[in-house]
Design brief:
The chain is an alpha+beta fold and 353 residues long. It has ten helices and eleven strands. The protein folds into two domains: 182 residues, 2-Layer Sandwich (Ribosomal Protein S5, domain 2); 163 residues, GHMP kinase, C-terminal domain (Alpha-Beta Plaits, 2-Layer Sandwich), CATH 3.30.70.890. Bound molecules: alpha-D-galactopyranose.
Length: 353
C-alpha cells in the first residue's frame, strides 16, 4: 500500500484516527431526539495531513487508490472526497480558516455495512485538522460538525448517533446518549457478554431514500400527536390513534426508546439480548427497514447457542447484524453462524468477533 510520503513527496504534519461504531440498541431514534446505545469497533479510519504546496486540496484514498485535486472555490467534491470537503466547508462556515491541504486516508471500516465508515472519516478528518491548525474544538463539537458535513454535503438527513459514537465511544464500553441534550454516560457491557458483528453481504441499496422517508414519517407522527419529537412520549398506546403507516413508525420509535432506557440501568446479558430481539422484530414489522437477508441472519444468530440476542444494526435495508454473545465465545459463534448463513445462499462476512 502507498503512504503519504509516496503520494505527496513529503512527510505528513499530523496523523489522526477515529473508529467505526456498532449500535447495540436505539435504532432510528436519534432523529426523534431519542436515546441510543452504541459502542466503538476495532476497525478505524486513519488520516495523515500536510499542507498543500499550491492553492488546491489533494485527497488520496488508499482503498480506492484515487487521488483527487479539489479546488476550494468550486462546487463540493463527490464520493469519498465529499466527506472531507464537507468537513472543511463546515469549519469555514463556522469561521475557521483552513488552508489548502494534502490528506491521505486509509480505513479498515467496511463501507455500506452500517458501521459508520462515513462518520469515522469525518471525525478523523476533523481531529486531524484540529491538531494541524490548533483548533479549539471539543469532541462533541467535532461530532456536530461531522453531522453537518454529512447532512449538507453528503445528502443524508442523519441524526447524531454515528458521529457522537465515532468521536466519544471506545471499544470497551457502551455509550448511552440522550440525543436531545447530548447528556451521556459511559457504561460497562452486560456482565459476561461480548459482541459479534456479521455483514449480510447485501449492500444498503435503498438506504438514503428510505431513510429520509422514514424521517419524514416520524415528523408527521410527532406533528399529529402535537409534540416536538417522538421522544416526548413513552406510552406506545398513544401511537394507536395515528393512521397507518405512521402509527407503526411511531410505535417503533416509542418502544425502541423504552428499550434503550431499560438497557441503560444495568441489566443482565439475558435481558439485554431479549431487548435486542424485540428491537429487530420492531424494525422489521413496524419500521420496515429489514430485508430477507437480515432476517435470515438474525434468525440464525438468535438460534445459535450462547447468543443472548441479535438484531440488524444501523439504518437497515442491508448491512450488518449485531449479536450479544457469551464473552470468550465470539469467534466460535461467529464462525458457526456465518457457515450456516452462507450455506443458505448468502455471502456474509465476519466483521467483529
Ligand atoms: C444511520 C444514521 C444515524 C441513525 C441510524 C439509524 O446510521 O446516520 O443517524 O439514524 O442510521 O439508527
Amino acid at each position: 500500500m502507498m503512504d503519504f510520503q509516496q503520494i505527496f513527496n513529503a512527510a505528513p504534519e499530523v496523523e489522526a484516527s477515529a473508529p467505526g461504531r456498532v449500535n447495540l440498541l436505539g435504532e432510528h431514534t436519534d432523529y426523534n431526539d431519542g436515546f441510543v446505545l452504541p459502542t466503538a469497533i476495532p476497525q478505524h479510519t486513519i488520516v495523515s495531513i500536510g499542507y498543500s504546496p499550491n492553492d488546491h486540496h489533494h485527497f488520496y484514498s488508499a482503498e480506492l487508490e484515487e487521488l483527487l485535486d479539489v479546488n476550494p472555490t468550486e462546487p463540493t467534491a463527490q464520493g469519498f472526497a465529499s466527506y472531507i470537503d464537507g468537513c472543511i466547508r463546515v469549519l469555514e462556515a463556522a469561521g475557521y480558516t483552513v488552508p489548502p491541504i494534502n490528506i491521505f486516508v486509509t480505513s479498515s471500516v467496511s463501507i455500506g455495512s452500517g458501521l459508520s465508515s462515513s462518520a469515522a472519516l469525518e471525525v478523523a478528518t476533523l481531529r486531524g485538522l484540529r491538531s494541524l491548525l490548533n483548533l479549539d474544538l471539543t469532541d462533541v463539537k467535532i461530532a456536530q460538525f461531522g453531522q453537518q458535513a454529512e447532512i449538507q454535503y453528503a445528502g443524508v438527513n442523519c441524526g447524531i448517533l454515528d458521529q457522537m459514537a465515532c468521536s466519544l465511544a471506545d471499544t470497551e464500553h457502551m455509550l448511552f446518549l440522550d440525543t436531545r441534550t447530548l447528556d451521556r454516560q459511559i457504561l460497562p457491557f452486560p456482565a459476561g457478554a461480548g459482541i459479534v458483528v456479521i455483514d449480510s453481504g447485501v449492500a444498503r441499496s435503498l438506504a438514503s431514500s428510505g431513510y429520509n422517508q422514514r424521517r419524514a414519517e416520524c415528523e408527521a407522527a410527532a406533528r399529529q400527536l402535537g409534540i416536538k419529537a417522538l421522544r416526548d412520549v413513552s406510552d406506545p398506546q398513544l401511537a394507536e390513534q395515528l393512521p397507518d403507516p405512521i402509527r407503526r413508525r411511531a410505535r417503533h420509535v416509542i418502544t425502541e426508546n423504552n428499550r434503550v432506557l431499560q438497557a441503560a440501568v444495568g441489566i443482565s446479558a439475558q435481558e439485554f439480548g431479549e431487548l435486542m430481539n424485540a428491537s429487530h422484530a420492531s424494525l422489521r414489522d413496524d419500521y420496515e427497514v429489514s430485508v430477507p437477508a437480515l432476517d435470515a441472519l438474525v434468525d440464525i444468530l438468535q438460534n445459535t447457542p450462547d447468543v443472548f440476542g441479535a438484531r440488524l444494526t444501523g439504518a437497515g435495508f442491508g448491512g450488518a447484524c449485531v449479536a450479544l454473545v457469551t464473552a470468550g465465545e465470539e469467534n466460535a459463534i461467529a464462525q458457526t453462524a456465518l457457515e450456516q448463513y452462507n450455506r443458505v445462499g448468502y455471502d456474509g462476512q465476519i466483521l467483529v468477533s
